[in-house]
Each structure stands twice: as C-alpha cells, then as structure tokens.
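To assess whether ligand presence alters the predicted conformation, the chain was also submitted together with 2-acetamido-2-deoxy-beta-D-glucopyranose. Input:
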Amino acid sequence: MSPTLVQFVEIVTIWFTPCLVALPYVVPDRPHYGRNYPDIFELPEFYDTAFVGPPIQHDPRWPSTEVTVGQVSGVAVGEDGGVLVFHRGNRVWDASTFIGDKFANARGKGPIQNHTILRLDPATGHVNESFGANKFYLPHGLTVDKQGNIWVTDVAMHQVMRIPKGRHDPDLVLGEFLVPGNDDKHFCKPTDVAVTSSGEFFVSDGYCNGRILKYDSNGKLLTQWGQQFTGRASQAGTHGLYIPHSLTLLEKQDRICVADREHGRIQCYNAGIKNPATAGQFVKSIEHAEFGKVFAISYDPKVNLIYAVNGQTYMGNKVKGFTLNMNGDIEGTFEPRGKGFGQPHDIAASPNGGDIYVGEIYPDRVTKFSRELW
Ligand SMILES: *[C@@H]1O[C@H](CO)[C@@H](O)[C@H](O)[C@H]1NC(C)=O
Ligand SMILES: *[C@@H]1O[C@H](CO)[C@@H](O)[C@H](O)[C@H]1NC(C)=O
C-alpha cells in the first residue's frame, strides 16, 4: 500500500470505528417484519418500548464469599427483591445418579441434608433465610410467583411443588415420588415452572418427556403440548422439544417461551391466558448459531427483553449471557469478570428490571449483574 493509502485507511478506521460501535446504542432496533417468521409476537407496540441502553455489568460485590452453596440449579427474584437460590448442597448430578430415568440408590442416599433453599439480600448477598433440608433429592427449577409462593422441581423425585409464602412445606405436590412417567399423574425429570398472576401455571417436563403442561391454580391439568424429539432442531418442527429446560412467561403478550435446550433455540407459544383454546399454539422461534444450547431464559417486563444463558456444544461456542429483544435479535451479551461463566444453569431478572442473577452448576455460585453500575 502507498503511504497515502495507509494514512487514509488509518483515518477512516480511527474516526469511524467508534461510530459503528456506538451505533447499536443510539439507534433503537426496528422490527424486521417477516424476516424470519410472519407474526413475531403480533403486538407491534411492544417494539417501541424495547430497551436499548447501557450494557449489563458484573456487580463486583457478587458472588458473596459468605454464601456456601453446592451446584446452583435454580435462582429467582421475589417481588420484594429477595433473591431465592435452589442448590444441591453436597450432592452432585454425575454419571451414577440415575439408572435409566430412575434415581439410583434413593434409599441409601436419602434426601439432601443441607438447607437447599436460601434467601439472599440483593445488595450484599447476605443469607437472610435458609431452609429446605431433608426434603429434596436433586433440586432443579425454582420460581417465585407474584404472591410470593415458591415453586420447585426435583428431577430425582420427579415432582413439582408449591411452597406457600412464609412457609417451608409444600401445599401442592404433583407427580409421584421417585417414579418417572409420562401420563397425567407422572413427570420425568421436570425442569421448571412459570406462574400467571392468577395462579395458573406451566410445567416443562423435562429431560425425558419433551412437553409443556398447563394447570389451573388448584393443580388441575388443563392442556399439554410438545413431544420429545432428539433429532436436529431443523427437523423438530414447532413442537418437537429436546429437553425443555426453562420457562418464562410474557404475561401481557400472552406468550410462554421455552428454552429448548439441546436444540439451542427458544420456542414461544400462545399461553392461552385470554383464550384457553389457543394455549400451545406456536408463535415464534428464536435461534442463533451462537447459542449452542439454551439453558435458561427470563423475561424482564420492565425493559421488554428476554435474558438467556447458553451452554457449550462440540462446536466450541462461547458461554455467555444474552439480551434478546422482542424481535428475537441479540441486543447484547454479558459475562462475569475474570474467567467468565463456567456452566450457567438458571437466570432471573429482578422485578424492578435493573438486576439479573445467574446460578451456575460449575463453579458453585450466584453472580449478579446490574445496569445501574454503568
Ligand atoms: C452440606 O452439609 C455438610 C454436612 O453438614 C457440610 O459439610 C457441607 O459444607 C454442606 N455443603 C453445602 C454446600 O452447604
Ligand atoms: C437481610 O439481612 C440484612 C443484614 O442482616 C438486613 O439488613 C436486611 O434488612 C435483611 N433483609 C430482609 C428482607 O430481611
């Protein structure tokens, strides 16, 4: 290259690169109608409220050194801001944990003796409350509803439970203890729960059944959809799921989205809140090559974004946190300072929209991210 050409390239690079980098933050994403799917979320007004702003930063006060946890399988934030954590104490899920779909040596191992549910102070990570010892065999999903009830799933017990606010024992238990199955009375390693304001709820079931079940507030089964499909995502159609691992409800939009983990995609269906007959109708799929696997998702109504954490495939994609807008586009990514994520397993946005928590299976920790720090 001639010296003047080198200079020219330098000037262009120096002056225009910052503009390109800043572009995503100053130009709100416009909807790309019809690019991938015809009807997206069907509610164009939601695009206009899409949050385009500062990136998400690791809050350096977390993980708190005060907290001792095992594998963190579930995390959720209550309406009061309290951070709920579901962890496996001194038990781990390894190659000897299951024989087929059944928990191996249940009698010999018994329930986990550690307190498996912790309530942490959002500012400091201080443990305000701990309970759940001698109740669970292999914790998985944790959800807290608008009334403050805690919902958990246990993949060894094959059960789903609702623990009323302020109490430590469930008032609703679904599934048969330690018995896997795929009928109306049994789950097979159920993974997560999502609850509407009126108490209707959805269960993702799970590692061996690729289905979503919807119940009324008393635990009566209303409908179910989806089936296990272990082939490629491109052949799975709209209802073929391969480990539906996490649920998030977009209540205002009447959508229930599922992390279809092994297919590396997010499947969104009609939740049927307004019209029960539409529950389970396919609405939209969010797929990006960078995902690899999708472990967990959490919708944040305040900023109208879905947060996701992914997992590695043999393709060697990077493990990250993602923010996705209502069009399904990746708006940004985030990860902890230092070595980044190990194996994130669950993600939860705070109801005030400012904070995001990620629980990991390895290393055993809960990390907090905030927008305000920026
Ligand atoms: C679980 O309990 C055992 C026995 O009391 C204790 O040694 C261990 O540190 C606890 N582990 C966690 C993660 O709480
Ligand atoms: C949690 O504990 C901290 C420190 O003891 C206290 O300041 C805070 O008010 C507690 N939060 C709740 C919700 O009890």
